[in-house]
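In this supplementary section we document a worked example of the pipeline. Step one takes a protein sequence of length 408 as its only input; no multiple sequence alignment statistics are reported here. Step two produces a three-dimensional model, which step three serialises into structure tokens for compact storage. The input and output of this example are shown verbatim.
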Amino acid sequence: MGKKNRRKRVAVEEAVPWAGAAATAEEARDALLTAGYEVARGVPGAARKHADRFAPGLDLPAALADAADLAGQQLISRVCRGGWLPMDLDQAARRHVDDFARSFLLDTLAAYVERFAPATVHPRWREQLEDTGATHWWPEPHLTHWAAKHILTPAEALTTVIEALGFLLTLPAVTPVLPAPGTAAPQRPAHHAVDEKKLGRVRALLAKAESSSFPDEAEALSAKAQELMTRYALDRVLVEAGEAAPDVPSARRIWLDTPYVDAKSLLVHVVSKANRCRAIFDPRWGFVTVVGDEDDLDAVELLTTSLLVQATRAMIADPAGRSRAFRKSFLVAYATRIGERLDQAAEATIADSPDPARLLPVLASHELKVASAFSERFPEVVSKSVTVRSHEGWGAGREAADRARLGE
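The serialised model returned by step three reads:
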């Protein structure tokens, strides 16, 4: 090893002070956090190197077990206050760390929320926690029992902890869509509870569309689902127009799987627009934030999920669809054409409504309300185009979307 490399190694190790078995929990926490910063900076092998130094034997020092909890709670608190929800953390972890680190993060999240009175945790925040499977299953200390559950040596367990801490350190603040635990106010009753019977009909139509092996049938079922959602929404906005205190628009994040996330985000955008919502894509992490009324957000989630399944299946089934350029162009064209069809369907539904003259100004007022809520959350928005490089992919995508017969 050259002198320069030796000096660099000594400097790094000095930056992570470690008193061995004599270290206090606070000293061990600081050492773990400093090692996590190295991981966040992308230093190769940093997690395993420091884990081997912290726990060289087969016994896990008690201070390290306590330190893992202290460090995890410190960072998870920062991240949750920075706008990240349980589903966001789970989705991001699936994409950036292994299953061990993801498991440790979900346990840390479950322990974190227990610090707050239930009334101060938003119901949707708690629902997301349950959906991720994050529960407090362990007796203390957590790290000891977690390592035993996953059959990991102390060094392996600490490697995971450091990698998880490094991951948390990379998460930037995001636009909040729900209040952080400890800050939620008591929920006032919604003006209109979701009609589960109507929502069930929509889900059933989309489930049939996803399972159908016939593109024409699948897309016609999707069109019918959109028609039902539009009619329900128009009835709702007319009722709410006469109320003194209509519901304030909410927001949700929809995560997109790679590849072609920018093309897929376009599909979320057009579905959002057709359902009276506004959407913005975060390319750093691959999610779309949608702003709108709760029922409309339900519709966007349901239809987007189904259309993504159908578009992907149609794209893969196309015999010409082997190149990345073809597939990305296919998805962009599919989204563009679906947007045109959804807009046509919405216009036709409005025209066929019992009182279109009254409905149009109400919809304009609703659009203004959503736009205002969107601008408040996202005051600076940059438009970005999606490049299409395959003429064949563009044509195939539009043909697949044309088979939807939306609005007919």
